Amino acid sequence: MSKRQIPSLTALRSFEAAARHQSFRRAAEELGITQSAVSHQIAALEDALKVALFRRVSRGMVLTDAGAQFYPYLRDGFDRIAQGAALVSRAELGGDLTVQLYITVAMRWMIPRLHFFQARHPDILVRFHTRDFHWEFDPSFADIGMISTVKPDNPELHYTHLFDARLTPICTPGIAQAGMGLRQPADLVNHAMLEVYTAVEDWHHWLDAAGVPQLKGRSAAKYDTYLLAIEAAIDGQGIALVPHFLAAPDIKSGRLVQPFAIDVPQPARWYLTCLKERAEEPRIRRFREWLVDLVAEDPVIVGQKSPIAAQ
Prior knowledge:
By secondary structure, the chain is an alpha/beta fold. It is built from eleven helices and twelve strands. Helix 1 crosses helix 2, helix 2 (about 25-30) packs across helix 3 and helix 5 (about 105-120) packs across helix 9 (about 245-255).
């Protein structure tokens, strides 16, 4: 195997920081060295590569075509190094396990059940890393993630299918009363339809199944999470459409009801995912096994279908 021809790592760090910030001064501040040192390091790198990476303009320095071509390779390389360092550091934290979750899932489903895992595995300290919007699993921040996705096709990740959720409309008992005019899906025309704008396809699927596709696009208030849509429904602001398992506690308590006995499959499916090379790490494997068993026995998941489910 031929020897790799790699320029000075110090010079590469200076170039990457300067290219990212588009500033020698800010690169120097980040690296804790002088601006002159950054300039010297980049000059040395240009000499080694025999190509100019920056050119001076009236307001500072900008990347040349060669610099712009080189920068993404360095950025990705340093990102991978940082990711590897984070993995090694976490491995030395003993029993820590960071789980990436949607904030709605954390608050309305996982937190009330986590004590079962802690009782079974008291040596593992679970940390939650929550996100609001649709996201891909980020292994630089978490060991494992519970995600909802239509395409589990990242070749670097290991996926374990957990369950398929069903979408159900929810509202307060007062809104659902016959006197309020909510006897059939067509009556939604007289009510506010609360939409999660990161999942706009939800209402489209349900309205098609309910036979009222003409109501598409009638949503009133829009929210970025199911959590906020559920809270708005509890507050009596309209009818929300959410995965049943997230609203189950409020349906059980009577704070919310399902005005129509129609539900539909959520387009995305729910998975537990992690990097392929970490799938059999003891902490990750134990959490995965516990979660798979929990889902198989959880009545909220197993019994989530409405009396009449749209096919």
